[in-house]
Amino acid sequence: MLPTAHPLAVLFGDSFKAHAGKCVSCNRCKTFCAAFPRLYKIFEEAEQSPRPGHLPEGLEDQEEQRSEIDRGLREALALCSLCGQCELRCPGSLDLAKHIMKAKIRYAENGLTRKERLMAGVDAVGRWGSRLAPVSNLLVNNPLVRLIAAPLTGIDPRRRLPGFARPTFHDWAETRRGRTSGSSRAPKGEVVYFAGCTANYFDPAIGQAAVAVLERQGMEVVVPAHNCCGLPSIGIGDEKTARSLHEANLARLLPYVEEGRRIVCADCNCVHMMRNNAPFLWPTPETNRLAKAVTDLTSFLGELVLQGRFDTALGPVSGDVRYHYACHARTLRIGNETIDLLRWIPGLAIGYLDTFCCGMGGAFGMKEKTYDLSLEIGADLFENVRHYRPDRIVTDAPLCGRQIQEAVGVQMLAPVQLLAEAYGIPTAGQ
């Protein structure tokens, strides 16, 4: 049942009245988001009913209307990819994306579909896909198989899926356990690297470059076992699975935090989940300590620059490179740090792409229901790439990179891969 006939009531629940006064009706949240226009439309239609927003119990037609509104709300919330841009642009500083997460959780309590669970189960899919590679890659890259599988998986058959890596990044890291390369000197510090699902199962070259570049700075790099950060699960409202993943990571990572080590990650989506979302959803002392220890890799390297500890012996890299400022990188406010870091590379011409969302949003860009919408959201960015015609694009969000590369055909790299290239460090992706 709706607490009151206003979209913010769905998001903020019992605390609606305390937050509603901050909304200045500027409509910014409706101008760049697929979810908010639909949310407002549902309530505009409800206001035209005989008793808008107040549907008494016991009347069959009104019960049907309530069910229809609930279905519409769930569909509208599914259009939110949790990019967080509504929070950045809201003049009232409302925590809109965070409360959309909570609304997703409330609606998911009525049950999740098999397709939704499959789409969010990146850890399980990645683990089995990597074990079965290269056979699994032959299947996912076959257009006919994708077409047949679409009704079962919910994945649009036009979406080209990333190949599964064998060995995975964690397999590679396990073979190097106890070894610090890049320097024969005593390490200048110790750091923990969190790979995330993309670098582990689909693009190990990112993780290999991250380890190599950190070791180039004289760091001892520890890669403990860890699993998904939980962002795909929370994206469908599956708090139980997301919390289970989070608590497993807490158990593995917190001992390093207690020793004073930093947790670095080259995927801004994972960093956003661990630093911003997890403390909001599960505000325990342990979660807060982990959140404070987590940082994105480029910010960590930027700190070394300020401390005079960054190895500036970088070789030249030619070509025009553009930086895509991904949504979660913007919520973390790390774009300038990435650009400043890459400007240490001699001969590199680097600049921003104009700030547009790519539309990927994790599973959002995979699903049949939202595949076309994801490309529509990213259309301005794709046109921007065609205008600048860069040789390569770098981004702190690997999945965004896949969306852009598939749409316009320009090679995508993580910033740390460009640094590895400048250091002359070979990785599996080069």
Task: Walk me through the structure.
The protein has 430 residues and is an alpha/beta fold. It has four domains: 7-108, no CATH class; 114-153, no CATH class; 169-305, Glutathione S-transferase Yfyf (Class Pi), Chain A, domain 2 (Up-down Bundle), CATH 1.20.1050; 313-423, 3-Layer(aba) Sandwich (Rossmann fold). Helix content is 55%, strand content 7%. It contains 24 helices and eight strands. The chain has helices at residues 7-12, 16-20, 28-31, 35-47, 60-78, 85-89, 96-108, 114-120, 122-131, 135-140, 143-153, 169-175, 196-202, 204-216, 231-235, 239-258, 268-281, 285-293, 297-306, 327-332, 335-342, 371-388, 398-408, 415-423; strands at 189-193, 219-222, 262-265, 294-296, 320-324, 349-352, 392-395, 411-413. The strands form two sheets. It has a four-stranded parallel sheet, sandwiched between helices. β7 (392-395), α23 (398-408) and β8 form a beta-alpha-beta unit. α13 (196-202) crosses α14 (204-216), α17 (268-281) runs antiparallel to α18 (285-293) and α19 (297-306) packs across α21 (335-342). The longest helix is centred in the middle third of the chain and has 20 residues, at 239-258. It is globular.
